[in-house]
Amino acid sequence: MRNRVGRAVGLVVAAAAVVSGCGGHSATPRTATPTTAPPPPAADAIADCVLSIAPWLQTYLDGGTDLGDYQEMGLSSAQGGALRELQRQAAALRAQGPLPSGWVATEVRRACTAITAARASATAKPTGWP
């Protein structure tokens, strides 16, 4: 029994040393790393937006009617609004005939460019006082 208790205490002390980083001293000092990544370039943000909205719009165009809430789709509020507007536009165009070739790609990219530009201007550091 005494041997088991000693072994258990030894394991707890060893685990605590590993978790706390007290297992030994390193010759190189640790440096802090940033916890947030820099914002992606606008082109990447637009591409990510397109990859988020286009499949949902295509699902709608393929006959999906209840796509659910924009949050359930993994979209931002702005992306959800753009999707609803693109659905409305697509329905109006389809009432006149088939959608023009490339319409989805062109319109989703246009909407995502506007969303990205609005986000960039909203997060830009204001000039002036204070």
Keywords:
elongated; mainly alpha; 130 residues; 62% helix
Characterization of this structure:
By secondary structure, the protein is mostly helical. Helix content is 62%, strand content 0%. The chain has helices at 2-20, 42-61, 77-96, 103-123. The N and C termini lie far apart (69 Å). The relative contact order is 0.11.
Instruction: Give the overall shape, derived from the CA principal axes.
Output: elongated
Low-pLDDT ranges? 4-26
Q: Ends: how far apart?
A: 69 Å
Major sheet details: none
Tell me the radius of gyration.
26 Å
Mean pLDDT: 76
Count of extended strands? 0
Reading the helices and strands in chain order gives HHHH
Beta-sheet strand percentage?
A: under 5%
Class based on secondary structure composition and strand pairing: mainly alpha
Provide a count of the helices: 4
Quaternary structure of the protein = single chain
Residues in helices, as a percent range: 55-70%
Quickly describe the structure.
The chain has 130 residues and is mainly α.
Write the layout of secondary structure elements.
Layout: H1 2-20, H2 42-61, H3 77-96, H4 103-123
